[in-house]
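anyone seen this seq b4? input:
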Amino acid sequence: PQDSIVIVGFDEDGSREGSTGCRLFEGVYSSEADRVVLGPVETVGLPCDGALRRHERRLLDAFERPILWQRNGSQLRLTDGRGAPLVELASDEHDEPA
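predicted toks r here
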């Protein structure tokens, strides 16, 4: 949603952290080629309200399973194993999984 900013950082040590737009989260990941396997997510704070809550849940659900990532310019697209889109994020070159 336009009134929510999602932040996801992938650190070189295999940790990831960010914000759903309402709460902070952290977890771990591993990567190989275009596949990212995310570990469990821990969140801090209260869930989003209203329509933002659905978007937050979708994002957190995406982080509970193996995903594929594709970069197109400044867009980072996360898809499930069959290629169905889960979420698209504006990316920062420095946050690309290794």
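The radius of gyration is 13 Å. The mean pLDDT is 80. kinda curious what u guys think
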